[in-house]
Every structure is written in C-alpha cells, then in structure tokens.
Amino acid sequence: MPAGAWCDRVRKRPLMMATSLISAAAMASIPLAASYDRLTLMQLWVAAFVVGSCHVVGMAASLSYIPHLLPPHRLLEADAELASANTLADIGGPALAGSLTGLIGAARAVAADAVSYLVTAWCTLRIRSPETAPSPRTARPSLRSEIRAGRGVLLGRRSVVGHFVS
C-alpha cells in the first residue's frame, strides 16, 4: 500500500523506467560477479531484494498509469488482459527459466533476464501518451492518510471475499 500511495504522487513512466533499469543492473551484477568468481550469497540476496522491491513499485506505477493511457470504457478489458498476462508469466516463467538455464547455463539465463529489463525500459520509453503532472503537495491528503484509506478498502474487500470463501 505505501508503494501505491507513493506512486500516485509522482510521474509513473519515469518511475517505471527507473525500476526496470535498476532491476537490469541488479540482475546484470550476478553474471558479472560470477565471471570473476566473486559471486556471494549476500549479493544474491541483495539482488533479489532490489528486484523484488522494484517489481512492487513498478507494478504499482504501471497499474496506476493505465487510466492515463486508455479511455474509461477500455479499462476493464485492459485489467483483464494484464491479469491474464501476469498469470501466464507466473505459470510459464519458472518453466521457461528452468529450460533456459538448462540450455545456456545459469549465468547466461540471468544475463538474459537483465536484458529483458532493458527491453522493458525501452518499451516504456516509447510510450508517447502525455502524462498529467501529479497534484501539488498542498492539494492532496498526507501519504499516511492515503495508506490508511487504502488499507480500509483492502480490509473491506477481504471481508467480502472471506464471506464467499467461508
């Protein structure tokens, strides 16, 4: 929730590009260190933390950027397509990663992942839709109150879901 509230306060496209570039650098550091026989478990942990954090922030930014790109009547369709793509990636990604690792080796597979983040940044750079500037600081509620409001929505949804599950 803090990532989503924070993303609403900044321009989304530059943030999405930054998270992709940071992820690319973190992933590229792994095969680079391995090639010099300097790869440590700590580096793997740090890279995993950096990439995971960038993923959370980048996803929050991309989800809040969609309404700037599409007219309101297309948002439901876009959300459904994104959910399908994410599900496909969650299911097929590990199998593809395992196959790629078996074919070209772990270091090259991680390097390919780093390149994929560069491709993502390049594709994001090519978006030409203008993005409106975030509202000025004085015209919006505090970050804490926005997080509290988001938590209230989430907890409200959990009780609805819980009702149907039980």
Describe the structure.
By secondary structure, the protein is mainly α. It has helices at 2-7, 12-35, 41-69, 75-104, 106-125, 143-165. The chain is globular, with a radius of gyration of 19 Å.
- Give the strand tally: 0
Strand content: under 5%
Overall form? globular
Radius of gyration: 19 Å
Main pleated-sheet profile: none
Euclidean distance between termini CA atoms = 26 Å
Helix content estimate: over 70%
Helical element count?
A: 6
Question: What number is the mean pLDDT?
Answer: 85
Core attributes:
mainly alpha, 166 residues
Q: How are the secondary structure elements laid out?
A:
Elements: H1 2-7, H2 12-35, H3 41-69, H4 75-104, H5 106-125, H6 143-165
Short structural description:
This protein has 166 residues and is mainly alpha-helical.
